[in-house]
Every structure is written in C-alpha cells, then in structure tokens.
Task: structure prediction
Amino acid sequence: MAEELMEKIVSLAKRRGFIYPGSEIYGGFSGFWDYGPLGVELKNNIKQLWWRMFVQDRDDMCGLDAAIVMNPEAWKASGHVAGFADPLESGKMFNTMLTTSVGAGEEATTAYFRPETAGGIFVNFKNVVDSFHPKLPFGIGQVGKAFRNEISPRDFIFRAREFEQMEIEYFIRPEEWERWFEHWREQVGRYIALLGISEDRIHELEVPDGERAHYSKRTIDFEFDFPFGRKELYGLAYRGDFDLSAHGKASGQDLSYLDEATKERFIPHVIEPSFGVDRTILALLASAYTEDELGGEPRTYLKFNKSVAPIKAAVFPLLKNKPELVKKAREIYAMLKKVQPRIMWDDNGNIGKRYRRQDEIGTPACITIDFQTLEDDTVTVRDRDTGVQTREKVEDLSATVR
Ligand code: GAP
Result:
C-alpha cells in the first residue's frame, strides 16, 4: 500500500516534470536528482517563503551565501573530518563527507563539499559582526546545497547525496538558551503550517543522549509520516558554543562577542533550526497527493496551498479553432501574466482533460474563455478542490490571481 503510494508519487513527479532521476539518459546516478520545470518552481516557492519569514521579515536576522567548498581546516575544527561517519556493513566507519581535489599537481589538496551549510555561517560570524555590529540575540540564515556521500541513498529524494538545506544559526547569550530553543521550536511549527504540510503527520522527537550529533546538547527532530515511515523532516539543535570555540581555537581568531553595555566578552551560544528543501518537497507531495472522484470519475490531484503551487492559474480558450476565442483568451493570459508570471496556457484536448492535467500538478484555478466572454466580459473560474465553477468579471481576475 505505502510502497504503491510512493510509486505513484515518484511516477507523477517524473511524468509531470517535477523531479527526474539525475543524468537519467546515462542510467541515473544514485543519490542525485534533477528538478524539472515544475519542481524548480515548487522549490523556489519553498525557499522564498522561508527567506521571507526567517530573514527578511525579522529585524534580528540577516542572510548569507557562503562558498560550498571551504578551507579543509574548517571541517577538521568542526569535528567532521574525525567524526562525520556512518558504519559500513563490515562495521568499519566511513566518513560521509564528499571529497574533491583543489589545485593542480603537487599543489593539489583534498577538500570537502560542505556536509551542512552551517559551516559557512560559523566561519563568517566575525565578518558579519564587524560589518553590522548586531546586538545579541541575532541570527544568520543561509540556503544552499549540501553534500553527503550517503552509503545507501534511498526513498526517492529523502536520502540524497546532493541536497539543499535552509539553515539558521541563532546567536544568543548562554543563559538564555532554553527560551530561544522554545522560540525556534514554535517558529519551525509556524513554517510547517505556512507551507500546508499536514500537521497531524508531524511529530516532535526528543533525541536522547548518545544519539545526538557530536556538537549538540539538545536536539528535537521534527518527524513526518512519510509513506515509507516516520522519519526526520527538520531538526532543531542547541549547539552551545561548540562551533565558535572550535573555529576560534583552530583559526587563531578571536570569535568572542563584546557586549557594549556590560563590557562583558564571551563566546555566544547557538540555536540551530535546520530545514531540508528536498524533504520539504517530499512531505508536500505526500501531503498534497489526493485521489478522489469528481463528476463520477476518479481523479488524482495535488492539493497544494496556493503559496507553494508551482502554477497559480491556467487559462484556456474553450475551443482552439475559434480565432475570436483564442484572441480574447490570449489577451487575458497576457494581462494576468503581468500580475503573476506563473500562469499556464493550455488549449490542448477537451476542457475536461485540461482540468485533469492542471489538477494533477496542483494548479488552484482554471480560467476558461467562452462565447459568453465575448458578450459580457466574464469567464468561468473553476476551483481545483471542489470542481465548482463560478462566473467572474475579467476586470476582477487580476485581483483574484494576485
Ligand atoms: N546543520 C545541522 C544538520 O545538518 P542534519 O539533521 O544532519 O543536521 C539537517 O540535517 C536537515 O537536512 C535534515 O533535517 C534533512 O531535512 C536534511 N538532510 C540531511 N541529510 C539529507 C540527505 N541525505 N538527503 C536529503 N536531505 C537531507
């Protein structure tokens, strides 16, 4: 049953241009996935909502876009060279950082593709403090690729070797960690609600001693009921001063913070909410995937929130061989496209088929231009979830689409 559902989701994602196996014409490449035309829109919506909510709408946050390949010394200091490893079947430990070689000939050094975006934030802590003199608490957010040489990539995009993270390092006074941990716990929940991921499928797991990452003093995993089981969607960790202290020591730089008011100098502690983009997409697909019956016929549709839907509305001329209908529909399409670029044109096949195609990719509304439009400047707007059609004035459409 669950397996069948996963197969249906993977097949829809490929067929409709959300997600393709990486380098598919060469037989794919395990753990690597390519996002198609609709997948990239969905992904951008997820990242934009995150950036807006956590970086732009807050006065205590700023953004960063650090290099993926960092000085390898940074990964020694962070403990990843020694400890970022999973057991092989033989029981031997295997470091899962993806390596590369930088420079030519004898100058070449082994470097790592970052296994978490967090690293780039810690090494820029001093730069941001020197540029902006932010007062504690403040955070730095970053969205970007991360890489792990997973021993067995599996479950579609759930465990990939190349994936994307959206991470926050929130710097605080050590004695305030519990309060800020609670704050971010709540914020993670708010983001999940904003996306429209089924909240009854989310479960918080307190990660016990001995099972947390080497840097963490407390971790909560936000788990989601994926079709293949309850698994980690997001993480929230209290990293203490582990990273800034380690990087300060290894680099020889002073990464302490001076409180101007009290003249106190100390290493800030850190709360880290970490969000995987790809797992968000999978949780959204699993939440949105719906099979029902409409007008006596079975259908499959993606019940996406309007804010994440890759296409916001589709515009159809009722008949494609009637030039006056097509002309009018083209005008309306061009007008709406100026307000909201993610509008799709479709004049292929009958209206019923066009509705089904849009349902399957989660388009919230379909707008049809018919003969009545030519007389009274109204169109039918059909709702994805209910199939109900209403008549709306063309002049009101821009507002509806916006
Ligand atoms: N900086 C903290 C950190 O990296 P993590 O729990 O290892 O913590 C954070 O990863 C998030 O990154 C996870 O909750 C998940 O959403 C995503 N993630 C981790 N490994 C992944 C993989 N192999 N494929 C897809 N997403 C992954």
